[in-house]
Amino acid sequence: MIGLSVAVALSATCVISALAADPKPDAVIKTKSIDARIFLDDRIKADATLAADCLAEGRKWLDKNAAEAAASRKEDPQFFKEGGWDFERKYAIRSVVGDRYVSVLRNDYMDTHGAHPNSDVNTILWDKSEHKRISIRPFFTETADNGATMKAMVKAVIASLRVEKKKRDTSETATDEWFKSVEPSLLKIGAVTLAPSTEAGKSSGLTFHYPPYAVGPYAEGEYVAFVPWETLKTYLTAEGIRIFGGARPKGDAEEPQ
C-alpha cells in the first residue's frame, strides 16, 4: 500500500509539474467557434519592439480567423458539434547575426475539421538597429526578378531540396512540377532566414522554409533548403560580406527549424 501511495503521489507530482511547464499564450481568442492562441518565445519577449510587432501581427491573425470561424459556424453549425476550430501560431528566433539581424520563424497550426489539420511556416527578418522588418535585399548587389542573383538562388535551393528528398527516400517527387513554385523572385522563392554559423556573429548562408504542399505532397511535411553563403559570394554587397562567414553548424540540418 505504501508503494502504491508513493506511486500515486509521484504521478500526481509529474502531472502538476507538466501543467506548470505549459507556456501561457501571449494572446488568445476562445469562443464557441474557435480556440486560437499566439506564443512568443522568451528571446522575442526580451526585445520589446520585436515582441510588439509580432504580437500585433498575431492578433490580426486571431481576429481574422475568429471572424471566419464564426461565419462558418453560422452557415454550417453541424460541423461544430464537437467543438470549434483550433488555431495556433508560434514565433521563435532562429538566429541573430552581427547582433543586428534577427531571423524569426513563424509556425502556424490550423484545424478546421477537414480531412487533416494543416500547417504553415513563414519568416521575419528583423533589423534591431532600425527596429523594423527588412528583406535580404541589403546583402546582395541586385535582387531583380529573374536577375542573376535570384536565378543562382533558385538553382541552389532546388539542388538542396533534391538532396533533402533523397535523404527521405522521396526522390520521386523531386520534379520540376513540384519545384515550379520556387521562382527567381524575392517574393516567390520561399520564406528565408539567415542560417546560424560556426563563426560567432556570422551567418553560414540562407535557409528557405517550405510548408506541406509547397514542394511536395502533404505527407512529406515541411522542407528546409540550405544555400551556403559561398554559393552566392559573387553577388554580395559590403554588408553581405560582413555578415556571412563560417559553416553551417553540424546539428542545424537535423534540428527542427
UniProtKB/TrEMBL annotation:
List, for all copies, the residue spans of the domain called DUF3298. Answer: 167-230
UniProt KW keywords: Signal
Claim: Signal is one of the keywords in the record:
yes
Q: Which residues form the signal peptide?
A: 1-20
User: What's one Pfam family the UniProt record gives for this protein?
Assistant: DUF3298
What Gene3D superfamilies would the database entry show?
Fervidobacterium nodosum Rt17-B1 like, Heat-shock cognate protein, ATPase
- Its name, as the record gives it, is RsiV family protein
> What is the originating organism of this protein?
Bradyrhizobium barranii
